[in-house]
Amino acid sequence: MSSITAVLIDTPSIQQYVFSGNRLKENIGASNIVTGIYEDSLKASLKTVLNHEAHLNKWEENPEDILIKNSDNDFEVGYIGGGKALLFFREQGKAQELIREWTKDLLLKAPGLNTAFAVSDFHLDHFQEEMEKLHKELEMNKNRYFPQTFLPKHGITADCRFSGLSSEAYFQPSKEEKGFYISSVSYTKYQNFELDKEKRRVEKKSKGRFTCAANINMLGQTRGQNHIAIVHIDGNFMGEQFKACQDLIAIRKLSKSLKDIMDRVYEKFLDYVINQMEFFKEKESGFDLKKEDGKYIIPFRPVLIAGDDITFITDGRLGLPFTEKYLELISRENLMTDKKISACAGVAITKTKYPFSRGYKLAEELCQNAKDQAREAKISKNEETSWLDFHMAYGGFSGSLMEIRRKKCSINNCQLHFGPYLVASDDLSDEKNIKHLKNGIKDFINTKKWPRSMVKEFREYLTLGERAAQDFRDEMQIKGRELYDLPATGKGYGVNIWRGGSTPYFDMIELLDFYPKHFLTAGQVNTDA
């Protein structure tokens, strides 16, 4: 067949757009905008350009039916997913017109959001080569053009207190509060907060018993435990799998399979959280659940769900157990019925009032650290595995993850942090298996075996270096206090607590107050086999 015109669309810096603010409503509003741009806005612009309704979901319903091959069709969606969209046009002029119309619409409906495009003649019979050409042009355009998508600042205008941009829109947070001017970018995000699909989904799933938080302070925190966990999850090696697709049908099936999996996992995870609500409501749980309009607020708030890219926040004590559960659910799925799927996560535990955008950036770096470990595992063991990494910030922090760990977690070239941790695996010979971490925490929680004062003292000795910590361990052994030694690994950490310049015990002690006993004992954590 003759060539058609392809448009490859990307929305770069989605995370920066969503997480640039430090207010939950603004973040959620930005997320609603991002998830909606390939729906209502694109559909309306296509209708204006084509003079007829455009069906954006037909490619999912019949992946093998390529309509643009028929000369009677002037447009078709190749696929939409992962923040990208591939569109086909019969006429190049219509493609160019769509870009003009849609970007103009986005300037009004999503100021501050950047988009990038690549336009080229496209031969479906040479799909891989044509896609490679489109991706190269897209990257070139990203580096060449820097669109101005918000009103620039001037010396005579006031700064927006939320975004630091020029203030142009009058904003009143509530009827009781006095209004003030903010930027059009922040104003639009706040306006879109009410389109809170996740809140409605939780209320529907729980039959009106539970709802989602609109304020970051309402995730179950209590006095003395006023921390949140910012969790960023990303699928492993998905970009490589999309690039390996040899034709349009293959990329459609992969995109649809991934979307179905992530939707299913999210629904299962919501069921899991809702099933835990009876525990959270108990006074003995240690959580302080709030109510809104008579509904309990669940201690879980999704912020961005975009394909295999998920970001949520929760009470600081739930960061690791919730993340482990989410990764376990993902790891049970098969991609395209025959290939296991895996993912990695970063968990940044920070003070509730600490700037959210910085916490998210740290979570992103932690996730990348976990992904590096997953790549190493794939090379050495030829299997896909899921990993998580975490960091606890008791106060403020600055710099990269590497810099933070060099300052806070490095003693005389020895590392106090033991992660990243392997999740959803029965390979107990791996010392990084999170089951060992959890069993170690359980051991330290046993106050008859390890009084809390002794545990705190051990933590201090660990920060003094290898010799001091080993001497303390030897003294404790004389008194009959044995350490959990990671059985099945054959490493004997209980005897020599430092191996290869690292020790597993500091992380165990750090998490004593951040891993509720309820989640340590729920399910099997046996490592004696």
Give your account of this protein's structure.
This protein is an alpha+beta fold and 529 residues long. It has three domains: 4-144, Alpha-Beta Plaits, CATH 3.30.70; 197-408, Reverse transcriptase/Diguanylate cyclase domain (Alpha-Beta Plaits, 2-Layer Sandwich), CATH 3.30.70.270; 412-417 and 425-529, no CATH class. Residues 523-529 have low confidence and may be disordered. It is 42% helix and 17% strand. It has helices spanning 14-19, 24-50, 58-61, 92-109, 127-144, 184-191, 197-205, 238-243, 248-275, 277-281, 319-331, 356-381, 401-408, 434-445, 452-462, 466-478, 505-510, 517-521; strands at residues 4-10, 75-81, 84-89, 116-122, 169-171, 180-182, 210-211, 227-235, 291-292, 295-297, 300-306, 309-315, 334-335, 339-340, 343-351, 386-392, 410-411, 414-415, 421-423. Strands 11-12-8-15-16-19 form a six-stranded mixed beta sheet. Strand 15, helix 12 and strand 16 (386-392) form a beta-alpha-beta unit. The chain has 18 helices and 19 strands.
Label this structure with key terms.
Alpha-Beta Plaits, disordered C terminus, alpha+beta
Query: How much strand?
Result: 15-25%
How would the global form be characterised? globular
**Total beta strands:** 19
Q: What helical percentage do the residues reach?
A: 40-55%
Sheet/helix structural class:
alpha+beta
What's the helix count? 18
Please report the first level of CATH classification, the CATH class of the largest domain: Alpha Beta
Mean pLDDT: 90
Unreliable sequence segments: 523-529
Described by strand count, sense and barrel closure, the largest sheet is: 6 strands, mixed
> What is the name of the CATH topology of the largest domain?
Alpha-Beta Plaits
At the fourth CATH level, what is the homologous superfamily of the largest domain? Reverse transcriptase/Diguanylate cyclase domain
Determine Rg (CA atoms, Å). Answer: 25 Å
The structural domain count equals: 3
Shape-level CATH architecture of the largest domain: 2-Layer Sandwich
**What spatial order of strands do you see in the largest sheet?**
11-12-8-15-16-19
Cα separation of the termini:
61 Å
